[in-house]
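User: Run a structure prediction on this.
Assistant: Running it now.
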Amino acid sequence: MKRVCLQAGHQNIKNNCNPALRRSTGAGGEVEINIAVADKTAELLKKAGVEVKRVDANYNCDPEAPKTDWDLFLAIHCDMDYPNDGGSGFCDFPDPSIDYATKESQRIASYIERYFFPKLGINVKSRSNPNTRYYYMWRHLSKKTPCVLIEMGQVKDPHDYPILKDTNSVAKVLAESILGALGIEQKTKQEKEIEKLNANLDELRRERDTLRRKLKELEERTSKEINSKTKHIGELQKTTAELNSMLATNASVIKSYEAEVEVLRNQKSLLASQIDALQSKLEETNQSVILLTEENEKLKEELKKKEVSVMVKDYPQWKIIAWRYLRVFLASFLVTFTAGFTGVADITALKALVMSAITGGITALAKYLRDELGASKLPL
């Protein structure tokens, strides 16, 4: 638990154990503001869980003061009026030569000054002087106690006074600055709940923003995909139309081909019928040819018989014999003469003539005897 000692500047200073300090009564109206702010600040700090000792200007007379270590000793004052400067205040700390906790004193003084004055709307203008750097209380505190003196504003200034007289608001801001400097959680349960709700709300807002961003990205991506798909669909529709046109053309061509095929089938069927008819006629013709051939053969035989019969009947026997003799003779002579003439055989023309005469006579005699003896055929 943090421990803070708050001193209302100039309170009861007339009764101080040090006579030299009794005349330091402060600016007119300052003490009342110091006391009201110190009391209210102490109350607020206690509610925040801080151990608070509220003292007057005579704490230097308390023999326990140097024996007690505080996390902060704060002397609360208001400054005198500096005409026409718009009002101001500041925080100061002991001169480092007399402050063993000067680093912490300076840190806390800086924090309170940066928080307190802007929050109240009071200007900051440092008027550090020996009275603040060597404030009488600094010699009566423990070495470990950080010390700060605050001049909250100019008590008679037209700008600062309306702010300072609202001691509740001043005390609230001063308590907040002390708690912040000491690193103490300042929020009430309700404020914590509000902060938690705000944190949840911020988280929800971040999630909302994230979802919005993702939704936007999704919309953009979806839009691109839709545009791409639409373009692709358009291309497909165009291709489909072309294919349908081609199919229609092909269907027309196929229909034409089918008609031609049907015609060809009919022609094939007709040709098959004609071929069957021709084959039938061919077979009939073959039969007729066979019959005609047989009849021709018969007619040839009958003709030959008739010729022989006519020849025998119309020509006298001696003419027939003479004809046969002459035919054989001439044939034989040509053969034998040619053989002798070409050197194939040693035959003279006379020999050829004699041999042909003998051959023709023998042949004519033989055929005559055959006819006379009843031969059926007469060779030509």
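Residues 189-314 form the longest helix (126 residues).
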